[in-house]
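User: I'm putting together notes for a lab meeting next week and I want to include a structural view of one of the chains we've been expressing. I don't have a solved structure, so I'd like a prediction I can at least talk through. The sequence is below, exactly as it appears in our construct file.
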Amino acid sequence: MIGKLMGWDDTIVALATPQGIGAIGVIRLSGNKAIGTINEMFKSRDLTQQPGHTLHVGLLHDGTDVLDQVVVSLYRAPASYTGEDVVEVSTHGSPFIQEKIINAITTRGVRLAKAGEFTQRAFLNGKLDLTQAEAVADLIASNTDASQRTALNNVRGGFSVVLRDLRDKLLSFSALIELELDFSQEDVEFADRSQLYDLITYAQGLTTQLISSFHLGNVIKNGVQVAIIGHPNAGKSTLLNTLLNENRAIVSHIPGTTRDTIEEVLNIDGILFRLIDTAGIRAHTEDQIESVGIERSLEKMKKADLVIYLFDVNEIEAADLLRFLAESEANGKRVLLAGNKVDLVEHDEIALKFSGINVLFLSAQKHIGIDVLKQRLVDLVIGGEVNTENTIVSNARHFEALRLMNTSLAEIEKGLQDQVSGDLLSLDIRRCLYYLGEITGEVTNEDQLDYIFSKFCIGK
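Assistant: Thanks for the context. Below is the predicted structure for the 460-residue chain, given as structure tokens.
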């Protein structure tokens, strides 16, 4: 096993359930001493003689001290999550009891696990590749249907299968080209250049598709920051309350009521929108606190992925909208123009007033146009229906490796067109395989692994 080659021949333990009081807590061990250690504390039967994937109920002791009545789950190597002997002890959910049990285990030569160490061992022992291992962390952190389905697809190997097939084909061509180098004096070709060219074309299309999916993957994983911007009394806080269906922000007829930004999360069709209600923006104010609030509003607008510019249809002119829209587009901001308080004016009047401008009309107070606003937000962010059955890249590390891989594929394509020698072509393919291996974990180092798995929770 790779873990043993790296010096990981010890046994680890950690609480696998969240801290705090609950019905049960699960304490997980992995390593060659896992079964023997618990067997020493479990007097009901000899666990060393029991088969894997079995459950055993009994009392857990520390010497003469009875710690708890527990359920012990046995998983024997290699048929376990980590590929090693794994024991899970289900105890009552008292933090005091859990701490006593873990302390008793560590006095028997078992050390506390680092963050993500169980999954890291699963990777090192070949139970998961690196994309699957990282998807485990994404699955734990998922908080919408879309993020859960995307992560689950990758845990099940959706991303890995696509990359593994491509890697095998590139390796095959690389081996044939390198074989040609051994017969360079005989001027023979074992690798069909036309087939290699077709493969590179296919690989470029695949990597381009995966790179393009990163925007959607990032949205699914991290959500979208949406700043609600507008003049005082445009109805920004009312809109926030209406979208959330609760009175989160203070609403009054007095301009400048909102002095600081208020942030809340809204789930629309599986996408998290991090809504930011901002202080009303106006050119002049003598209120120092309001001035600070306006500065913060402008700062939030700069950082937001999307801006809802909310305005009172009775108080603004079309020229002002066009000016704001032009400034926003010049700064690379996506803006949704939302005209509020349409319940106070005739429809034909506002349609004529803002003719030719893409404005969504609504009434935050009367809940008019709110469903249309939600759908428009989703459309602006993802541009269509989320199909989580497709492979979606949500990891920045994968995105960067794919980008470098695409550059290498272009170099291979150019080499084929220029009919470069086999040794140069082989170098380009090897470089492409290197970036591909960085994603799946065939190419890695211990520092990189420590960084990746340090972001996991302890016990997983």
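A couple of points you could mention at the meeting. The two ends are 20 Å apart (CA to CA). The chain has three domains: 2-128, 139-219+395-440, 223-382.

User: Perfect, that's what I needed.
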